[in-house]
Specification:
The chain is an alpha/beta fold. 39% of the residues lie in helices and 21% in strands. The protein is built from 18 helices and 21 strands. The chain has a seven-stranded mixed beta sheet, with helices on both faces. The longest helix is centred in the last third of the chain and has 27 residues. InterPro entries: ATPase_NBD (IPR043129), FGGY_C (IPR018485), FGGY_Carb_Kinase (IPR050406), FGGY_N (IPR018484), Rhamnulokinase (IPR013449). Its EC number is 2.7.1.5. Pfam families: FGGY_C, FGGY_N. It comes from Thermoanaerobacterium butyriciformans.
Length: 475
């Protein structure tokens, strides 16, 4: 391979977005950050929204910066968080800003589905973990509370689909992101139409499912003129950021699990087909779509969101502290025994995370954490204990021992978290890459363009491109 292949990977996270330039020389992939911008949700009245118009503006700003580099871009791929969506009217106009998954309008909604005796059927068909912000519950809230919105809607596009549409004018629902909705038939890899009809949701708004590794379309004339780029293909990558992160994890063998550490922690294994049985129901595991049709059998854990919000809480109270200091103080806490349940509703979206941690510890009879180290340690202990419980449940489901955890994402920069994970779980921990979603995004683009044969080859290239660290239990 003589020439370097350049691809653009957009990754939109819960707090920021970034544009990365991927460079593939035939053996290794190197990445360069071109542009980073905040993703600041907006509270309007009692509702919590994503500022989609601002995010699309920032996306175009990133493309303009790339244009100035005067290099040949082979393709573009976009991944984002899951479940949230935008609705378009008959003129393809966005009806309103998409709701944020932490908006409280779905609080208690699962009870309505219990009353309709639909929960078992939903899980049997979709295999998706029940969480109140899943698309199925958000849409049902639209149907119950603002039906006029759905009356005007002609198209539903998940967040990456929405970005892709305004770049190409092509409408699809990419497979991995659609699977997070809890409305996709896990076996058929298509919409669960019977379920959608039972909920009186308009089935016509759902688009054709497009698998990762296909060309969605090409930059429109308007986007080309505005950004200075040429008619570049936009690729359907693993559009759910977790799908891209799993694709970008150099998993070694069947006895390995992946652990993606960001705002959320996602812990699971790859499966060739959905696993939907009494154990997965009992443990509330999810069967989300992955690259090359793999199933991501995993559990969502409310992870570093808690640490992020602790930092914000202390900063608001005049204590200027960064993540490295929080980690260090947690590792040296006077009282190592404090622990929270990170999935308790108290920690979903509290006004003050530090006070929420204190409240939880007091209400559960542990006493009152006195300082930053104790509070942070309670959060770390809770997060890692959930990892341990999840791994035990996962081993029960798949019927085999897991000896290695491949830990990826921004959280692996926290060495205390990595070591604590190895100690508490008793597993070998291998970390890297930090930018797993970017690497996964990039290799799927390269697969679509014919530069990489398959996911297996792509992961070998990633492993050859990064530095990994290993942690072993000392307990």
């Amino acid at each position: 391979m003589k020439d370097t292949v350049y691809n653009l990977a957009f990754d939109f996270g819960a707090s920021s977005g970034r544009l990365m330039l991927s460079k593939f020389d035939g053996e290794k992939i190197t990445i360069e950050e071109v542009y980073r911008f905040p993703n600041e949700p907006v509270k309007l009245g009692q509702s919590f929204y994503w500022d989609f118009l601002r995010l699309f503006h920032e996306l175009k700003n990133g493309l303009k910066l790339v244009s100035k580099k005067k290099i040949k871009i082979s393709s573009i791929g976009i991944d984002t968080w899951g479940v949230d969506y935008g609705l378009l009217d008959k003129n393809d106009q966005l009806i309103s800003n998409p709701f944020h998954y932490r908006d409280k309008r779905t609080d208690g909604i699962i009870k309505d589905f219990e009353n309709m005796a639909l929960l078992e059927e939903i899980y049997d068909v979709t295999g998706i973990q029940f969480m109140e912000f899943n698309t199925i519950f958000q849409l049902y809230c639209d149907y119950k509370k603002r039906p006029e919105l759905l009356n005007y809607a002609r198209t539903l596009l998940f967040m990456p689909d929405l970005f892709n549409f305004y770049l190409t004018h092509e409408k699809y629902n990419e497979y991995t992101i659609a699977s997070t909705s809890q409305m996709l038939d896990a076996e058929k890899k298509d919409w669960a139409i019977d379920l959608i009809k039972k909920l009186n949701l308009p089935e016509g708004i759902f688009q054709k499912i497009l698998m990762p590794g296909n060309i969605i379309g090409y930059l429109t004339k308007e986007i080309q003129e505005e950004t200075g780029l040429s008619n570049i293909p936009v690729i359907s990558v693993g559009s759910h950021d977790t799908a891209s992160a799993v694709a970008g994890t150099p998993i070694e063998n069947g006895s390995s699990a992946y652990l993606i550490c960001g705002t959320w922690s996602l812990l699971g294994v790859e499966s060739e087909s959905p696993i939907i049985n009494e154990n997965t129901k009992k443990y509330n595991f999810t069967n989300e779509g992955g690259v090359e049709g793999f199933i991501r059998l995993l559990k969502n854990i409310n992870g570093l969101w808690i640490i992020q919000q602790l930092k914000q809480s202390w900063n608001l109270h005049g204590i200027k502290i960064g993540f490295p200091e929080i980690s260090q103080m947690a590792s040296k806490a006077k009282h190592e025994e404090f622990i929270i349940n990170p999935d308790d509703k108290l920690f979903i979206a509290p006004d003050d995370m530090a006070e929420a941690v204190k409240q939880y510890c007091v209400e559960t009879g542990q006493g009152l954490p006195q300082d930053i180290g104790d509070i942070a340690r309670a959060a770390y202990n809770g997060i890692v204990e959930q990892y341990k419980n999840c791994l035990n449940n996962l081993e029960d489901i798949v019927g085999r021992k897991i000896d290695t955890i491949h830990m990826v994402g921004g959280g692996i920069q926290d060495k205390f978290l990595c070591k604590l994970t190895a100690d508490v779980t008793g597993k070998k921990v291998i970390t890297g890459p930090v930018e797993a979603s970017i690497y996964g995004n990039a290799i799927v683009q390269l697969m679509a363009l014919g530069y990489i044969k398959d996911l297996k080859e792509g992961r070998k290239i990633i492993k050859n491109s990064i530095e990994q660290k290993r942690y072993f239990s000392s307990i």
